[in-house]
Design a protein that fits this description.
Layout lengths: L8 E4 L3 H12 L5 E3 L13 E3 L5 H7 L3 H7 L7 E4 L6 E5 L9 E3 H11 L5 E2 L4 E6 L5 E5 L4 E4 L1 E4 L17 E12 L2 H4 L1 H7 L3 E6 L2 E7 L5 E8 L4 H5 L6 H11 L5 H8 L6 E7 L12 E3 L2 H4 L7 H18 L3 H30 L6
Parallel strand pairs: 1-2, 1-11, 2-7, 4-13, 11-17
Antiparallel strand pairs: 3-6, 4-5, 8-9, 9-10, 12-15, 12-16, 13-14, 14-15
Helix pairs in contact: 1-4, 1-11, 2-11, 11-12
């Protein structure tokens, strides 16, 4: 095992966990390179809003020296959940925001931009798709790129999400479909263009649920509301329905039939979006997902513990990144550092995976309660 004072570290994936790891390493004077398959930071939209928990995401931002800048961008008022009756849209329960603003919301894109801006220029190598990794007999790991080139590192960190190209070096596990699909749409300038919807959603998130289907809407920055039509259905549900998922009018008509009997103010989410419909089948890794330590390679975030998107994944990915970086700084030996990190991360992820599965069942009930 290579135990040089400043090991060569590569992070595959410029998501929140990988960028947090890179930032904490650089704060401690360590060099690191992040490889990202996307062509640039703005190659695609980054998704909705995230609530940052004090003991996970915010703790990682504190370790990264970015907590004050985070609070300047975050929306503490967004930590609110309104649960409505699906038939009448009457308010059933309201939770948050917490008095201490303990789980402020921030758009994922803003958070990623904050982390990217904190890194030394040139840390992220864009348009560098990794095809596979090969652990080597000397304890190092070889990164193979899509263009046929390769580079060797003392440690390769797989932070490359659900369909990780690094994971097979450690585990044969593959994500499987949860039985739930999110169909996403969006509303712009809601306070002026969609004022009734804005009042329905409030400052944070709104949920209305029936058996096997739910509607979720969440405030984002700049007056945008992102809505999710959550369905318990086969992954190829559109084939059985005889519709093209890219045909906005056909999808809309099908959804309106599925939500027949729901209050008309909630059905507004199905018929009045300013964008088309994006289909997101939800996948998870088996739980527990563990592996035997392999020198020169490890995982964090969704690459290690893909879970349903119910508020834990981004927070855990960032805490993973921070914990791994601190272990690498504290230990002179890379292998010892990775073992220390994995001994904390793996048990934590098992507990979180169980909680996330329960959260998805609560969000989209399979049976009447």
């Amino acid at each position: 095992m290579n135990s040089t004072p400043h090991p060569r570290i590569a992070i595959v994936g410029a998501g929140l966990g990988g960028l947090t790891c890179a930032r904490v390493l650089q704060r401690h004077g360590r060099s690191v390179t992040v490889f990202e398959r996307e062509a640039s930071a703005d190659a695609r939209p980054q998704g909705g809003t995230l609530d940052m928990h004090a003991d996970t995401g915010q703790a990682a931002l504190g370790a990264a020296g970015l907590l004050d800048r985070f609070h300047a961008l975050a929306r503490p008022e967004g930590d609110e959940w309104r649960v409505l009756d699906f038939a009448t849209a009457a308010l059933l329960t309201r939770q948050g925001p917490t008095p201490d603003g303990g789980r402020p919301e921030i758009d994922r894109g803003l958070l990623r931009g904050l982390l990217l801006d904190s890194l030394t220029e040139g840390t992220v190598r864009w348009d560098r798709a990794v095809s596979r990794v090969t652990p080597r007999a000397d304890g190092t790991c070889r990164l193979h790129f899509g263009d046929g080139t390769a580079e060797d590192f003392d440690l390769v960190v797989g932070a490359d999400g659900a369909w990780s190209r690094v994971r097979p070096a450690l585990s044969p596990a593959a994500p499987h479909y949860t039985g739930v699909t999110f169909v996403e749409t969006g509303f712009d300038h809601c306070d002026t263009r969609h004022p009734d919807l804005a009042r329905l959603v409030g400052n944070g998130s709104m949920l209305a649920k029936g058996v096997g289907r739910s509607l979720v809407a969440q405030r984002n920055s700049n007056g945008h509301i992102r809505a999710y039509i959550a369905l318990r259905a086969p992954q190829d549900w559109h084939l059985a329905a005889g519709i093209d998922p890219g045909d906005r009018q056909a999808v809309q008509a099908h959804m309106l039939r599925m939500f027949d009997g729901w209050d008309d103010s909630l059905r507004y989410l199905l018929r009045s979006g300013d964008s088309g419909f994006t289909h997101r089948a939800l996948f998870v890794l088996p739980a527990p997902h563990t592996w035997e330590h392999v020198p020169g390679v490890t995982l964090l975030g969704d690459a290690a513990h893909l879970m349903p998107p119910v508020g834990l994944g981004a927070n855990l990915a960032m805490l993973d990144g921070s914990d791994l970086a601190h272990a690498l700084v504290a230990e002179s030996d890379v292998g010892a550092a990775v073992r220390a990190y994995e001994s904390i991360m793996l048990p934590r992820s098992i507990e979180a995976a169980t909680a996330s599965a329960q959260g998805l069942d609560h969000l989209v009930p399979a049976t009447a309660s």
